[in-house]
C-alpha cells in the first residue's frame, strides 16, 4: 500500500519517461496562449496586477539595495514555483516541486550566490550579522555558532518546506480517493465534496508556498548587503 501510495511522486523508472516527466516544468513556456502576451485581457490584467504588487513588496524589502531589475529574479521564482505547484494538481501530471531534486536546485544556488556576494563584498557586515546587538560577551561564541548553523541550513529548510507541503496535500487526496471504491453509494457524494474542498485548499497552498519561497529568498538577499 505504501509503495503504491508514494509511487505518485516517482518520475519513472524508464529513462525516456523520466526525461518527459521532468520536462513538464517547462510546459508554462511552451503552452501559454500566444494572445496572453500580446492582446490584453482579464487574465493579463489580473496577472499584471499580481506582479506589480509583488514588485512593490520585494522593492520595499530590498530597501537601499534595490536597483532596476533586481526584483525580476524573485518574481520569476514566484511564477515558476507557483506554475509547477498548480500543474501537479492536474491528473496524470508529474509534480516536480514535490522532489528535493528541484527544490534544492532552486534554493541552493540562490543561497550560495547570496553568501558569496556577501562574504566577498561585505565581509564586515556578515561578521557583524552573526552577533545581534546587545548580546552579552559570554554568549557571543554561542551566538556565532547558532547563527552559523541557522545560516547553513537555510537552503535545506527552503527546499524541505516546499517539498513537504506539496507531498502532504497530494498524499491526503490520494488516500481519500483510494477509499472511494470501498464506500457505500450514499457516502460517495460526501467524499467528492471533501475532495473538492481539499483541491481548493491545495490551490491556496500552491500560491502560499510559492510566495513564501520568494519572500524568504528576498529577505536572505537583503541581509547580505
Automatic annotation (TrEMBL):
One protein family per Pfam: ATP-synt_A
Subunit structure: F-type ATPases have 2 components, CF(1) - the catalytic core - and CF(0) - the membrane proton channel. CF(1) has five subunits: alpha(3), beta(3), gamma(1), delta(1), epsilon(1). CF(0) has three main subunits: a, b and c.
Record's function text: Mitochondrial membrane ATP synthase (F(1)F(0) ATP synthase or Complex V) produces ATP from ADP in the presence of a proton gradient across the membrane which is generated by electron transport complexes of the respiratory chain. F-type ATPases consist of two structural domains, F(1) - containing the extramembraneous catalytic core and F(0) - containing the membrane proton channel, linked together by a central stalk and a peripheral stalk. During catalysis, ATP synthesis in the catalytic domain of F(1) is coupled via a rotary mechanism of the central stalk subunits to proton translocation.
Gene3D superfamilies (UniProt xref): ATP synthase, F0 complex, subunit A
Family according to the record: Belongs to the ATPase A chain family.
Subcellular location(s) of the protein: Membrane; Mitochondrion inner membrane
Gene source species: Prismosticta fenestrata
Stretches that traverse the bilayer: 20-39, 72-93, 100-120, 158-177, 183-201
Cross-referenced CDD domains: ATP-synt_Fo_a_6
Membrane topology summary: Multi-pass membrane protein
SUPFAM superfamilies associated with the record: F1F0 ATP synthase subunit A
UniProt-recorded name of the protein: ATP synthase subunit a
